[in-house]
Amino acid sequence: MGKSEMGKYIVIEGGEGCGKSSQLELLSKYLKRNGFETIIVREPGGTEIGDLIRRILLKKDEYRPEMDPKTELFLYQASRVELIKNQIIPYLNKGYVVLSDRSFYSTMAYQGFGSGLHFNVIKITTDFAISFDNKAYYPDLSIFIDINPELGLKMEKGANRFSEKSLEFHRSVNQGYRKIADMYPDRIKVIHYIEGEKEEMHLKILGYVKHLLNFK
């Protein structure tokens, strides 16, 4: 064990209320106790420009759900450019384990399967956004927490603009995540949300992370 010689980029994904933030905190604390340097980032946000974009995208008391999905797509990609260039790449180069709350898979699920944007458009703009110096910065590991949308919305309680969208929208997002995980089984691992069992979920996530980082 000990500090990773090469930085790793790990993402936790999922619908509203799935507990991503809590799992990232648990994972970060565990890795730090075992000698790894970590940083937690989030999408959208994580930079000065990204945080301004996050406010536009998510603040429910200022911007209504009628925002066009195309606008959402380009705002998310703009925030992503800033995060990867100014946070993710520098910390990976320092050997950190970068832990991210969401990535472009959320855009595929929400703006693609949820809002109906064409998958190829999302893929092209994503590849452009995440590429620097002829290298595309894909996550080394993504964990999708599969939560029942009804339960997730109840847990989230209207916390942001997207949590105010219809149950049908969130069911489409959830199904989208499942299809994306089926498309990329080597990149995305699925665990199921277990209400009141935060530690059990942590241990399942940890199993995949230990395999990636090659420690017991």
Poorly predicted runs: none
The strand order across the widest sheet is 2-3-1-6-7
Structural class assignment: alpha/beta
Largest sheet: 5 strands, parallel
Name the average pLDDT: 93
Shape: globular
Beta fraction: 5-15%
Helix % is: 40-55%
Kindly list the characteristics that best describe this protein.
single chain, 216 residues, alpha/beta, Rossmann fold, five-stranded parallel beta sheet, two-stranded antiparallel ribbon, 7 strands
SSE blueprint:
Elements: E1 8-14, H1 20-33, E2 38-42, H2 48-58, H3 69-93, E3 97-101, H4 104-114, H5 119-129, E4 131-132, E5 135-136, E6 141-146, H6 149-156, H7 167-183, E7 188-192, H8 198-213
Parallel strand pairs: 1-3, 1-6, 2-3, 6-7
Antiparallel strand pairs: 4-5
Helix pairs in contact: 1-8, 2-3, 3-5, 4-5, 4-7
What do you see in this structure?
The chain is an alpha/beta fold and about 220 residues long. The protein has a single domain (about 10-215), classed as 3-Layer(aba) Sandwich (Rossmann fold), CATH 3.40.50.300. About 50% of the residues lie in helices and about 15% in strands. It is built from eight helices and seven strands; from the N terminus they run βαβααβααβββααβα. The protein has helices spanning about 20-35, 50-60, 70-95, 105-115, 120-130, 150-155, 165-185, 200-215, and strands at about 10-15, 40, 95-100, 130, 135, 140-145, 190. The protein has a five-stranded parallel sheet, with helices on both faces. It has a two-stranded antiparallel ribbon with strand order 4-5. Helix 3 packs parallel to helix 5. It is globular.
